[in-house]
């Protein structure tokens, strides 16, 4: 019998236990972040459960359909947003919420206010729901300067100020990747326990990868360096084998694959979209040793920053968004590939 393997099977590191362990490294901590993250985890479990029923939409009346009782159901992205907003406010730990779904930031009533600012996209890639392709939630957490006087400028912070960031991918399995600044860890939802279990400790992006990931349908609008780079991926001049192309078109899934397998993901600026398509915060978690050269401006603060934070801490994280829904071209992945 393999006692070591057995010990792992019976000693389950849940996400709550992991975050509590992290908390003990900061004796001054009052447990606010742990509580707040628990509310994010609840939102992710809700979205996961809803997404897994999306294929039954016509039968059950999810995703904007009419259900068997003839009631019109909310679209999943709208519903997910409502669930996240309510779960986050009820934590009593947040003062400003910036959601990709809402044009304006939400300022929390003084009676329920806490110290955190959360930027999030409750359900990114929603155009993929109907065909069952992986989609995800993205989030980033900052600290407000003055809890009694929160201002929109508090949200426009560089990614390096993030306290925590991550994403949850609703795919073959439901995986939550979290960075609280010291490493990136992946947790998989065990549906029978209803718990996220640590399955990918201390993720590091391979230094170099074999994959490039980009929407080549935009090639006619690219600038010359982007065109040359992709040409090099297909026809390497140094005798190395050409790279494989993988593009899901759902940023959480493309970033997750890049994090695990290495390579490069890019959504560059082009003639049609001079700021790229993705929003700043949507792409930043940290500590996995990856390199991103976002000139971050994704759809807003939502997409680029939290994912870069889960991935690396350098240049993209120095960008200060000018407005909450700012977009940015993005290049991220293995260090050598992005260099
Ligand atoms: P979607 O439009 O389905 O919401 O953030 C938006 C996003 O998806 C990303 O998830 C994805 O990476 C990107 O758009 C795909 O854009 P293209 O269709 O232009 O490739």
UniProtKB/TrEMBL annotation:
What sequence ranges are listed for the domain Fructose-1-6-bisphosphatase class I N-terminal?
13-201
Q: Kindly report, in one word, the top-level EC class recorded for this enzyme.
A: hydrolase
Gene Ontology molecular-function annotations: fructose 1,6-bisphosphate 1-phosphatase activity
Tell me which GO cellular component terms the UniProt record holds: cytosol
- Keywords of this entry: Carbohydrate metabolism, Cytoplasm, Hydrolase
Q: Name one Pfam family in it.
A: FBPase_C
GO BP field: fructose 1,6-bisphosphate metabolic process; fructose 6-phosphate metabolic process; fructose metabolic process; gluconeogenesis; sucrose biosynthetic process
Q: What is its EC number?
A: 3.1.3.11
Question: Residues in domain Fructose-1-6-bisphosphatase class 1 C-terminal?
Answer: 205-280
This enzyme catalyses: beta-D-fructose 1,6-bisphosphate + H2O = beta-D-fructose 6-phosphate + phosphate
Q: Which PANTHER family match?
A: FRUCTOSE-1,6-BISPHOSPHATASE-RELATED (PTHR11556), FRUCTOSE-BISPHOSPHATASE (PTHR11556:SF36)
The record's similarity note reads: Belongs to the FBPase class 1 family.
Name of the protein: fructose-bisphosphatase
């Amino acid at each position: 019998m393999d006692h070591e393997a057995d010990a792992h099977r019976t000693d389950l590191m849940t996400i709550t236990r992991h975050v509590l362990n992290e908390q003990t490294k900061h004796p001054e901590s009052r447990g606010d972040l742990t509580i707040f993250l628990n509310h994010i985890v609840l939102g992710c479990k809700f979205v996961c459960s809803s997404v897994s029923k999306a294929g039954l939409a016509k039968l059950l009346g999810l995703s904007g359909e009419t259900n068997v009782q003839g009631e019109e159901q909310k679209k999943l992205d709208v519903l997910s947003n409502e669930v996240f907003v309510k779960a986050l406010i009820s934590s009593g730990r947040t003062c400003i919420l910036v959601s990709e779904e809402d044009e304006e930031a939400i300022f929390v009533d003084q009676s329920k206010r806490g110290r955190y600012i959360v930027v999030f996209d409750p359900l990114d890639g929603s155009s993929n729901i109907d065909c069952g392709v992986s989609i995800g939630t993205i989030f980033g957490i900052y600290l407000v300067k003055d809890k009694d006087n929160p201002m929109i400028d508090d949200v426009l912070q560089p990614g390096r100020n993030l306290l925590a960031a991550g994403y949850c991918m609703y795919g073959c399995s439901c995986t939550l990747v979290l960075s609280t600044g010291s490493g990136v860890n992946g947790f998989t939802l065990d549906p029978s326990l209803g718990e996220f279990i640590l399955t990918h400790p201390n993720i590091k992006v391979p230094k170099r990868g074999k994959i490039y990931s980009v929407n080549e349908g935009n090639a006619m609008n690219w600038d010359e360096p982007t065109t040359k780079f992709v040409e090099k991926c297909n026809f390497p001049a140094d005798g190395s084998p050409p790279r494989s192309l993988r593009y899901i078109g759902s940023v959480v899934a493309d970033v997750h694959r890049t994090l695990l397998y290495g390579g490069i993901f890019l959504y560059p600026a082009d003639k049609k979209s001079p700021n790229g398509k993705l929003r700043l915060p949507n792409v930043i978690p940290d500590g996995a040793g990856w390199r991103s050269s976002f000139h971050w401006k994704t759809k807003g603060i939502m997409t680029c920053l939290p994912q870069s934070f889960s991935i690396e801490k350098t240049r993209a994280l120095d960008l200060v968004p000018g407005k909450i829904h700012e977009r940015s071209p993005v290049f991220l992945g293995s260090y050598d590939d992005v260099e």
